[in-house]
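This week, study the protein below.
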Amino acid sequence: MPKAKKKEEEEEEKDAVVDNKTGKEVDESDVADDPKLKALFADANPNDPLRPIFAPLGKHDVVEKGQKAMYRKVNVPAHRFSLLKEHWMALYTPVTKQMKIDMRMNLKLRKVELKTTDKTDDESALQKSADFIQAFVLGFEIQDAVALLRLDDLYLECFEVKDVKQTLRGEHMSRGIGRLAGKSGKTKYTIENATRTRIVIADQHIRILGSFQNIKVARDALCALIMGSPPGKVYSRLRTVTARLAERF
């Protein structure tokens, strides 16, 4: 192959150096001669002249902390208000100290109000704190609800017995709720331990706290009990499902 063709191919293969400001191609030899271009490529690796260089952010581009506070309000039903007052410090301490969120009780509106501060670092802290208060209001123990502040993949799910079977009324409804709880709460505790969730049964309302996968398993077990499956059958199905989940993880 002639030398002239080789030189042409080598020139074509070379990468071009581009000025970031103008967008025009710059000869590499000119970079060393021109002081302005040299300053432009000063921070770049000498072996990589194509590394992009960006100007520092201006004041208008930087989002200042505490520029705009965000709020959340949690409604408190009448039957939970006295308990909220009783356990206020146990709820107040982790929200203010750990999550750096301001919290107050509005006695007139019967709501717990939450607000971000300049010290709030985590963007999800406000929502986590609201979920923590909501979990307590729904009937969960504080030591169980506080996991919502520490872990990211925990959720709350609420449904009613009538959502599963609408024809249950009177004594049939009472028996359905009794099947969920079991003798001295045995069935409920068994489902909780098997699925690593926490369950609250308040009359016809059922609340589950746990990870997405575990909530699904617990909900399926509870729905089977509502529909009339015997507890023994539900336990055996739980064993197989939890064993399969343990193998997966």
Notes: The CA atoms of residues 8 and 111 lie 77 Å apart. The beta strands are 17-18, 25-26, 71-75, 101-106, 111-116, 155-160, 198-202, 205-210. The longest strand covers residues 101-106. Residues 231-248 form the longest helix (18 residues).
